[in-house]
User: Which sequence fits this backbone?
């Protein structure tokens, strides 16, 4: 593994997360509860639209452009897909939109530009240019945040947030015009590509569902707003640790893909990495439990003291989350996205069922237990997927790039 890239990726991830969180809270203060609620409603829809705009191509670019000999064909298909979906969205906006007209147009443009940014990031990672990609993350987040700060300060409305962010990102894209010149859009759909893209879209939808459903169900199953706030705070802490694992798994993904293209199965290397990730997860969980209440009070205040009761349970889920990140990337590197999709659907169903069962009797503690069980179910599904991929590899030990 190219460990030398990890510091750059970690710094970029923490910088982007810090800027995003600071900007989010500042927007809440500037807009006020009513407009901030309207913004978050539009933001939720934007997240759903983003899944369709991306179409799974962000992952496909990362995978298929590794050691590619096709001069960026996957990137060209991704841009063609995006332009097609944007065109259809604009037609739908003109025909169907009756309320929040300017808002939905801003959402469409903002999501489209963000999707192009993610395509470029994936192309850099596919080449192994993780240091350049880290700088790209820092630059585009800084420019878009600065654009939002200036524009919202002058015109504090939710619509301006989306327009300002899009304009900032467009300014960044002007500096990579050469990338666009060498990657002209392809509008002719490839059924083999879309078969994989559909699996990745299913994964994104199922993952979004089981990562957000607990907060939604807590609201609808008569849990107090104070407890929901404490649970959300504990979840944010968990997500911070998960964020730190992402650069590792992405760099490891590239190595596993190279092994796969060279006809070498990576099972032994994968399970060595998983063993290390479990040790790191146990250490992280132990440290967070030790800091526990003191850390939460110092960061969030005394009113969040009771979040320390649920945090240790959420931290236990890291024992599954860290290995799952590696198993996920292993399945994708070997072209097993449909196996992964089935595992994700299984985990989403388990999560919804467990939350409905546990929350009425145990509140936020039940939601935490459901999180642990869900990640364990996902681990079981992913291990089954890896075993199936291993069996297919033994049957046909000459894997090739999927779309070459």
Assistant:
């Amino acid at each position: 593994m190219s460990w030398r890239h990890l510091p750059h990726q970690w710094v970029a991830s923490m910088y982007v997360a810090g800027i995003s969180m600071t900007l989010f809270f500042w927007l809440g203060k500037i807009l006020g509860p009513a407009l901030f609620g309207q913004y978050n409603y539009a933001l939720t829809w934007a997240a759903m639209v983003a899944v369709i705009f991306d179409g799974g191509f962000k992952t496909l670019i990362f995978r298929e452009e590794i050691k590619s000999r096709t001069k960026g064909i996957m990137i060209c298909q991704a841009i063609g897909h995006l332009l097609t979906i944007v065109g259809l969205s604009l037609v739908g906006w003109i025909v169907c939109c009756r309320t929040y007209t300017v808002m939905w147009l801003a959402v469409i443009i903002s999501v489209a530009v963000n999707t192009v940014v993610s395509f470029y990031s994936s192309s850099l990672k596919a080449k192994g240019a993780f240091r350049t990609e880290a700088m790209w993350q820092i630059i585009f987040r800084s420019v878009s945040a600065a654009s939002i700060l200036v524009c919202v300060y002058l015109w504090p409305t939710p619509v301006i947030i989306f327009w300002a962010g899009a304009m900032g990102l467009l300014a960044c894209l002007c500096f990579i015009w050469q990338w666009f010149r060498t990657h002209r859009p392809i509008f002719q759909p490839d059924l083999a590509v879309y078969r994989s893209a559909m699996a990745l879209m299913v994964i994104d939808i199922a993952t979004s569902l089981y990562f957000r459903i607990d907060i939604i169900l807590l609201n609808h199953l008569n849990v107090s707003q104070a407890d929901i706030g404490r649970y959300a705070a504990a979840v944010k802490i968990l997500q911070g640790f998960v964020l730190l694992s992402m650069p590792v798994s992405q760099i490891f993904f590239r190595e596993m893909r190279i092994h796969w293209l060279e006809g070498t199965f990576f099972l032994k290397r994968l399970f060595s990495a998983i063993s290390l990730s479990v040790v790191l997860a146990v250490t992280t969980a132990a440290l967070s439990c030790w800091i526990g209440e003191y850390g939460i009070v110092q960061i969030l205040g005394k009113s969040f003291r009771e979040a320390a009761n649920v945090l240790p349970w959420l931290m236990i889920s890291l024992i599954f989350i860290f290995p799952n990140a590696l198993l996920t990337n292993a399945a994708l590197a070997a072209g097993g996205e449909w196996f992964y999709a089935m595992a994700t659907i299984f985990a989403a169903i388990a999560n919804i069922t467990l939350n409905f069962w546990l929350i009425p009797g145990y509140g936020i503690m039940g939601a935490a237990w459901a999180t642990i069980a869900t990640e364990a179910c996902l681990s079981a599904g992913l291990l089954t997927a890896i075993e199936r991929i291993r069996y297919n590899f033994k049957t046909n030990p000459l894997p090739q790039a999927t779309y070459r």
